[in-house]
Design brief:
3 domains; three-stranded antiparallel beta sheet; mainly alpha; 12 strands; 420 residues; flat
Length: 420
């Protein structure tokens, strides 16, 4: 038996198909970890719990090969878990948007997004989430803690890691400074309650709500529908009788149904006398500002500075794995070997050569400036270039202005036109 055959015999066989069981197990356990963190006491404890539960999921991934001995099972567990979690969060976002907006337009947009997501999911699954795909990723070491040729190319590897880590940390800090410091939640639609934070009571004579009122999701939707079916009286107070009833006064700040406002306007128009400009002025009811409470969901990332820590840790791992991927690691090792062949000059020679370069730059700049001054004087003296007297005007070439003969001709034509 040849050496290659012996080596192949020691490796697990890569079968076809998609590792659905490992991927779904990774998704379920990761989703449960994010969901469990949301049940911890709010504040710092909840953010720290996220690290504990997600860290437990990562530790669980290390033991997956003992449960599923197929090659690439660990990668399928991690990659499938993250991929399906992102897909699940996108579905929740889509459902939440449909819940808040509604209507035919939102349905068409949602249907289009579902089609796009389905196509992208099919492409990603067929490309990466297959037995051969996850086996290839595992051979590159993306889910392994082992190093590739650890003692070779250390200088270039370290410089590359330092540069990428600085980029990852500064990127996470920029994300926080841009206003994304709150916890990232994937909210479950059709759950939780609604609390009134700003009822906009200053616009109403009899405020319908007050701050701190709590409603169930269904009750608040009915409240919104009721407010959208009413209008707010503005302008001046008017008195009118509708449907043969007694006269009623409608004052600014009153909240009345739309059909009542229409009847009042018709009654005022029908009973209007000469010179009477009385009319009912209305605007749409102002909806209150709210926030969701007791909302079920998944905490995807903690908030505040701990989000920087979480993103930085993720960046550290990805950077460390990147410099240990065989293809990229061999490139860095080759770069380091080439750098070792470079003959670095001593400090005295480096200082002397730097002075020569800087002096040459100043001499070249001075020569260009002197030539510019000479040609500027020559071209100005023969009227090829003209420069305005005021410094605010821009320098213009003579071809953008009429020549002296053309100016005299234009002046003569203007004088003749005036005489006519």
């Amino acid at each position: 038996m040849s050496e290659s055959a012996i080596a192949q015999a020691g490796k697990p066989e890569v079968q076809g198909g998609t590792p659905v069981v490992e991927a779904l197990l990774g998704f379920v356990t990761l989703a449960l970890a994010c969901f469990a963190a949301t049940w911890c006491p709010d504040g710092l404890g909840r953010d720290l719990a996220w690290f504990v539960f997600v860290g437990a999921w990562a530790v669980l991934a290390a033991f997956v090969p003992t449960i599923f001995p197929a090659k690439g099972s660990r990668t399928a567990f991690a990659l499938g878990g993250i991929f399906f979690l992102c897909l699940f969060c996108f579905a929740l976002l889509l459902l939440g948007w449909m819940e808040s907006s509604g209507g035919q337009q939102s349905f068409l947009i949602s249907a289009s997004l579902v089609v796009v997501a389905t196509v992208l999911t099919r492409i990603l699954v067929s490309r990466f989430l297959t037995r051969k795909g996850v086996a290839g990723l595992e051979e590159q070491g993306w889910t392994s803690l082992s190093s590739y040729k650890r003692v070779q190319g250390q200088r270039v590897r370290r410089l590359t890691m330092i540069t990428l880590i600085i980029t990852a940390v500064t990127g996470a800090m920029t994300l926080i400074n841009a206003g994304y410091g709150a916890r990232w939640f994937a909210e479950l639609p059709f759950t939780g309650k609604v609390e009134i934070t700003d009822p906009q009571n200053g616009r109403y004579s009899n405020p319908p709500l007050k701050a701190g009122d709590t409603f169930s999701r269904e009750d608040f939707q009915r409240l919104q529908a009721d407010l959208k079916n009413k209008v707010l009286v503005g302008g001046e107070a008017v008195t009118a009788a509708i449907d043969g009833g007694p006269e009623s006064t409608y004052r600014p700040g009153d909240l009345i149904p739309r059909e009542v406002a229409t009847k009042v306007k018709n009654a005022l128009r029908d009973g209007r006398r000469d010179g009477d400009n009385q009319d009912l002025t209305t605007t749409d009811a102002v909806l209150p500002e709210t926030r969701k409470i007791d909302q079920l969901g998944l905490m995807l990332l903690p908030g505040g500075q701990l989000k920087v820590v979480a993103l930085s840790l993720l960046g550290f791992y990805l950077v460390w794995r990147l410099v240990n991927v065989p293809a990229f690691a061999d490139f860095l090792i080759a770069t380091d070997s080439e750098m070792s062949k470079v003959s670095w000059p001593p400090f005295k020679k480096l200082w002397r050569d730097t002075l020569v370069v800087v002096a040459g730059m100043f001499l070249m700049g001075g020569m260009i400036m002197a030539i510019d001054w000479v040609w500027r004087g020559v071209l100005t003296s023969i009227s090829v270039l003209q420069f305005p007297a005021t410094p605010d005007d821009k320098n213009r070439s003579e071809d953008l202005k009429p020549w002296p003969a053309a100016r005299e001709t234009a002046a003569a034509a203007a004088t003749a036109e005036q005489k006519k």
